[in-house]
Amino acid sequence: MDAEHPATNGRGTRNDLVRRIEEIGQWQRGGERAPHKPLLLLYAIARAARREPRMVSYATAEPILRRLLEQFGAPGRRPAPEYPFWYLQNDGLWELEGVGDALPRRGGTKEPRVSALRAGISGGMPRWAFSVLASDRRLRGRIIRSLLTRNFPRSLHGDVCAELGIPVLSVSDRRRDAQFRRDVLRAYRSRCAVCGFDVRLCHQPFGIDAAHLMWWQAGGPCETPNGLALCALHHRAFDRGAIGVSANRKILISLDLSGDEAWLERMFYDFSGRELRPPQRRAEEPDERFAAWHRQQVFRGPARDP
Q: Sign of torsion, CA 225 226 232 235?
């Protein structure tokens, strides 16, 4: 899933730990998302925070990592929890026990044998790193924020933290976010582009956000054609992949949505196939390059029929 890097052994300082985590090698191809290693690190940090054992068997970790990848990884790809469990070794941030002859295929350059991992291999962060994370709450929070901010939009931070059982932590570039928000909300007159939500408190927009089509974490620009004004509900649904935008700017609703039919009808199904509410100027309309990225990397297709 990534280019290999020489593993670093032995103890390190807190700065070493931060640097290694910030420099982890992640699989890349175009704008595709691959948050496998960050999710495994967040899982390990959550274990440290709860004072759980440093090493965890792959058999125990696999369903947890699979669920995380299904929820927060790119859609349409097979979740592969074996990749980070094996390849995080290359970043000096992971150790394995009980490997024996469970070697990767094809000379160490391809995927590990999943059956061998399940048969008794355990993994965990190096002892020194795990100990530091277990004892230093401030450092732990700093690293969690860094992993979240580098890999997920702010609207998903709470969902990732809740799934892992860690306190909700988020951070943002306030200046960047503030300008992007002003530009997008002005373009859409502070109304949700999906449902038209327009509520104000003391004459100020309330419950309306500026959402990125192509996430900033994936290189999406903070420009109005890469943004939509969305109410809080539809912003979160958009970033989770429940909503998408077609090439002709019509609203897509994921077929995977389920729950109370009355609420789904009112809040989602009724908008399927409708055109997005347009911005004030044509130059501010959603750019298809960014909408296509969202359909490929975030939207949980297929879409419902209108």
A: positive
Q: Are 196 and 158 contained in the same domain?
A: no
Using N-to-C axis directions, what is the helix angle for 154-164 and 58-72, rounded to 10°? 160
Cα 143 to Cα 190: distance, rounded to the nearest angstrom? 34
Please give the model's pTM, rounded to 2 decimal places. Answer: 0.84
User: Which residue type sits at 36?
Assistant: H
Are 194 and 287 part of one and the same domain? yes
**Residue entry with tokens 């590990």:** 112
Among residues 164, 186, 204, the one where a domain terminates is 164
Structure tokens at 228: 């939509």
Comparing CA positions, the residue from 71, 72, 62 lying closest to residue 35 is 72
* pLDDT, tens only, 260-289: 999 999 999 999 999 999 999 999 999 999
Q: Are 20 and 8 in contact (CB under 8 A)?
A: yes
pLDDT digit string, tens, across residues 89-137: 999 999 999 887 655 554 555 567 788 889 889 999 999 999 999 999 9
